[in-house]
């Protein structure tokens, strides 16, 4: 079974490092980026299943990227991370095509569950069909 | 609520409202009101005083003038009458008749009976020898040819002498007349007792307080004076200057008492009639009036002063109370504004705290994962790095919370040495994240010569937070905020805060520091900039604004390097 491929983007480097490692420990293929621009470049090069994006980042923020991803790769899923729990930002993200949003600090089990939900074997197969 | 708000109930925590300022205000108001009230009073009193004085003076002078004029007229009439009588008698009787001493005696008796005052009568020949004499002395044959009066009567035909003692040993004077035509140069000479002149002027009823007498042109007394010497003594007042009319002048006697002196030169005679009045005796009325006037003035001034002092004190106290109340309200308003400003930052601050919290969460989670999920025991170095990261994030959180707490602290006006650059960076610390998310560029321009300034840290933070908050609200994403410090002349430092925001419409610009003026959609309180203005003023500085719609706005806060005491 293929690993779920995840991209995590957050401007806090230490956060990204730890989260990447934790998700990796849970058997997923994860790459972390600290800027929207770098992440977009990577996404163009490589295939992935889910992008976990921080809403607020200097330069390209999560909200700027989500629409772009959904437009170019409709099958790829986006989960938003929001720091200050702004319902407005979350709703906006969902309208743009994000499938979930989580508030920081996040619970890893919840994230993993969502990741598996949106990109797990069943989903992936459906997506492949 | 912060502990310090309890203090706002009393005045203790207010900025010091100096007693000196109110005392100054009281003096200023008191003096100007007093002057306005008292000056017209003084002018009126002065005018009254001058008029009364002039009137009283006239009252003193007029009777003296009148008396002197009367005396002059009476004396001139007296002398003229006697000259005319002598001339008439002389003209009617031939010299031959007058050589007869009996006829001369009859003439003397007639003159005595008709006019009075004649003592004796003598006929003097052209050679100056007395031809005949009628009177109480033995003077027939006396030679007057060498005497000065004899020459004078030959020149002017009429002669009136000064008063003298002569052979007769009592004060008298001489009237001599000469008839050229039919008397062959003879002279008729009559002696007149000067006492009759004295009686004449006393008979004119001078004021009881006055001294009336005659002097001659050398200043010798011709009639007795009560106060200025005896007959033929020098009059202590001297000879007044010649005037054809009666005159009055004021002088002092030897004791320094004021005198009113009236005098008149009696025509065709050596006499000057004088009336000397001791004006002090008349001045009792004037002095009483003057005292009453002064007492009235004093009373009025005292009443005015009492009312002014009382009124001013009341007014200044009211002003002070209002000031205190206003200061208290302003103080509360400032604090509310500060809390509101912090509230506006709340979202950003929460996000900022959330980030390190998220890191802590993930690092701690990873440690747990490594212990539970990893097959190998976790690397010691790795664990150490994770713990360090957690501690760093905790520090970050505490920095943020401390900054927030320090900012929210309710502080009294204090003097601190402040590095403006550090303070501005602290303030901008709140907005750092927002700036980075919104791609707002923040540029600092701090020249090397900016000194520390003496000011109030908490209040300056509030000033700059208000301005920077407004700037952020006015800018779109991707804007630019420039903060430039500048040392100015006169020991001042200027802080220029320039944004690239929407700008302020020219019609709004004059009103932006007014309370309750706002253009923010959804409503600001309209107090931020008015409070900012109030604080800067309180700190002894000034604030200016320049703006162009669509280009941006620049606020310039000018602060003194040394804080002046209020």
Account of the 3D structure:
Chain A contains 6 helices and 5 strands, in the order E-H-E-H-E-H-E-H-E-H-H. Chain A has helices spanning 13-25, 36-45, 62-72, 87-96, 108-119, 121-128; strands spanning 5-9, 29-33, 50-54, 77-82, 100-103. In chain B, helix 1 (19-92) runs antiparallel to helix 7, helix 7 packs antiparallel against helix 8 and helix 9 (420-429) packs across helix 11. Chain B is α+β, with helices and mostly antiparallel strands and 566 residues long. In chain B, 49% of the residues lie in helices and 18% in strands. Chain B folds into 2 domains: 16-282, PAS domain (Beta-Lactamase); 414-566, Heat Shock Protein 90 (2-Layer Sandwich), CATH 3.30.565.10. The interface between A and B is medium-sized, with 22 and 27 residues.
Protein topology:
The complex is a heterodimer of chains A (129) and B (566).
Chain A: E1 5-9, H1 13-25, E2 29-33, H2 36-45, E3 50-54, H3 62-72, E4 77-82, H4 87-96, E5 100-103, H5 108-119, H6 121-128
Parallel strand pairs in A: 1-2, 1-3, 3-4, 4-5
Helix pairs in contact in A: 3-4, 5-6
Chain B: H1 19-92, H2 95-98, H3 101-114, E1 118-124, E2 130-134, H4 148-156, E3 158-160, E4 172-178, H5 180-183, E5 187-193, H6 194-202, E6 210-216, E7 247-252, E8 258-265, E9 271-278, H7 284-372, H8 380-408, E10 416-418, H9 420-429, H10 432-437, E11 441-445, E12 453-455, H11 457-474, E13 480-488, E14 492-499, H12 528-538, E15 542-548, E16 552-560
Parallel strand pairs in B: 11-13
Antiparallel strand pairs in B: 1-2, 1-5, 3-4, 4-5, 6-9, 7-8, 8-9, 10-12, 13-14, 14-16, 15-16
The shape of chain A is globular
DSSP strand content of chain A:
15-25%
Number of separate domains of chain B: 2
Q: Please describe the biggest sheet of chain A, giving its number of strands, its sense, and whether it closes into a barrel.
A: 5 strands, parallel
Q: What is the N-to-C order of secondary-structure elements of chain B (H for helix, E for strand)? A: HHHEEHEEHEHEEEEHHEHHEEHEEHEE
Output the CATH homologous superfamily of chain A.
Answer: Response regulator
> What's the architecture of chain A, going by CATH?
3-Layer(aba) Sandwich
Give the termini distance of chain A in whole angstroms. 16 Å
In total, how many beta strands of chain B?
Answer: 16
What's the count of strands of chain A?
5
In the predicted model, the low-confidence regions of chain A spanning at least 5 consecutive residues are 125-129
